[in-house]
TrEMBL record:
The gene is iolC. Keywords: ATP-binding, Kinase, Nucleotide-binding, Transferase. SUPFAM superfamilies: Ribokinase-like (SSF53613). It comes from Streptomyces brevispora. One of its GO terms (molecular function) is 5-dehydro-2-deoxygluconokinase activity. Residues 198-211, 370-379 have a biased composition (Low complexity). Belongs to the carbohydrate kinase PfkB family. The keyword Transferase applies. Pfam families: PfkB. This is 5-dehydro-2-deoxygluconokinase.
Amino acid sequence: MPEPYDVITMGRIGVDLYPLQTGLPLARVEAFGKFLGGSPTNVAVAAARLGRRVAVVTRTGQDAFGEYLHQQLREFGVDDRWVTAVGEYPTPVTFCEIFPPDDFPLYFYRQPKAPDLDIHASELDLEAVRSARVFWMTGTGLCAEPSCSATLAALRARNRSGITVFDLDWRPMFWESPPGAAADGPLDNRPNSAADGPPDTAANNRPRPAADAPPHPAASARYREALAHATVAVGNLDECEIATGEREPYAAARALLAAGVELAVVKQGPGGVLAVHRDGTVADVPPLPVEVVNGLGAGDAFGGALCHGLLAGWDTARIMRYANAAGAIVASRLACSSAMPFPHEVEAALTAGSVTATTPRPDAPAEGTPAVASPAAPTNAPPAASPPPAPAEPPPAAAPQPPPAPAKANPLPPPPNPERPHDGPGLFRLRPRPPAHAPPGSGRRGRRPASQAAVRRQQRAADDHRRRSSRPRLTGRRRA
């Protein structure tokens, strides 16, 4: 029998196209970075970064983006044997806008249907799902068939064995609107739901339905059915309200325990995280201070670290602190999947007590990816190991001097390519240093402009030259 996986996640996958320029709407963004995306897939990457043996169950389109996702999964150390292709639907693409510190609108392109919602129960390796030490599923997997039936089949196969995590993952745009719902319902799609930041002010001030009227009855019913098979539930306040009808953190945690889980984790954004165990253990952990670059993906890093801590057998408070630190590290970086931290980075953040933003250079590779030099790419920087310039010739002296040592070659950098003057991928454009002989008025730096006195001297010299050249010349010799 093969060795069981530490973590198997099931659900959404896609390509994230994140702008490489922050503080701009999509209409003004000129360059994007391409990344592996999808919440449960990112959780798998986060757990793999922390040293766990991980696989993911999902589907992509039968296209170039699907091939890219397979490549990325393998590079991150995530087993892709259960990632299959669907010929009828394209691989989903997600855009976002980055307005730090707390505004990151998402734009999903999953029409006519996302391949990850076309997972069939008959295609599942239920023995592998049953034997995994942690099985992670999400609320999005319940929003449509056949994914909903497949997800519930996997939960029933688990039969509450091991650790079964239900990420409440509420994305209302993936669900059909309930009958009679207003166009602007009580729970809109929060832009920063992946980072579990505070809901927007309009959503907070909007009137909410009565306690006995769930915001989305169909979603609430499916969430309750899944909770009966889970041992851990994780969600922010909006997601807890969908699952339980409660928004107050402690009330939501108690309602999740009553629904059947052993551990309820309520993420409160700036309020930190609350974890309540059925044995009475309570951990209310404040957030780790962080300079936010992009909050998207912080919740997925939290999830991967949560799995890691549960497998390690740590106490609840330590798990929450560790997961908080992992999420803060990703929030301090531009990317998502490639920004997932390694164990030493999480430990360093916990030791420091805060996380500083690490925005990459525009021409640097994404976090966690190796730098690959391109031979065709021009550069204006000299080689790192360039020897010092040769010494100047000594001045002549009365006494004979020994000949100077031969000068070593000082390799010069290749000339800049005029077709592409060393520009980064969208953040800014670097112009090559102009030559010292750049003509005046060329708009580039050259020789220092002459002083007014020097200009007058040059003018007088030119006038004298013209006067001399205008005098008539005598031919032949003058007679005596």
